[in-house]
Write a structure and sequence with these properties.
The chain is an alpha+beta fold. It has a single domain, classed as Histidine kinase-like ATPase, C-terminal domain (Heat Shock Protein 90, 2-Layer Sandwich). The protein contains 3 helices and 5 strands. It has a 5-stranded antiparallel β-sheet with strand order 1-2-3-5-4, covered by helices on one side. The longest helix has 22 residues. The radius of gyration is 16 Å and the shape is globular. The model has no long low-confidence stretch (mean pLDDT 89).
């Protein structure tokens, strides 16, 4: 019988955009351990990098005294990623829809859209400083 306990991996990064590459390495390693397929892993990695970039760039304004906090919570059937910044937060509703023709040339809004497209669920806390993303493992025929 497999373990039903969750494993939590925590990571605090200084708010430098150069640190984001570490996320890719860590998340891909976690996804490999969890047996996610390559395509799904790439989507999840993209979402995590977008969330990390948002936390560092928009949340913490690349202020080195602030950190972006990451929690990778490994469950037997899903991965939960929690990203928190030390910024002022934002309202999800106020971020422009990148698919609206009026916004096609704007660079903002795409990250959130990508995160929401790549993950099974993306939720933001009330203040907008914490994003929680979940990706479920596809049910396999292997038992």
């Amino acid at each position: 019988m497999g373990s039903t306990t969750e494993q939590i991996i925590r990571l605090d990064l200084p708010s430098s955009i150069q640190q984001v590459y570490l996320l890719d390495t860590i998340i891909l390693e976690i996804l490999k351990e969890m047996d996610f397929d390559e395509e799904t892993s790439e989507l999840v990695s993209l979402a995590v990098i977008e969330a990390g970039t948002n936390a560092i760039k928009h949340g913490n304004k690349e202020d080195w005294s602030k950190h972006a906090h990451f929690e990778f919570i490994v469950h037997p059937d899903k991965l939960t990623v929690v990203v928190q910044d030390e910024g002022k937060g934002f309202e999800r509703e106020e971020v422009a829809d990148p698919l609206d023709p009026a916004n096609l040339l704007k660079s903002s809004g795409r990250g959130l859209f990508l995160m929401e497209a790549c993950m099974d669920s993306v939720t933001y806390n009330k203040s907008g400083t914490i994003v929680t993303m979940v990706k479920h493992k596809p049910l396999s025929d292997k038992q």
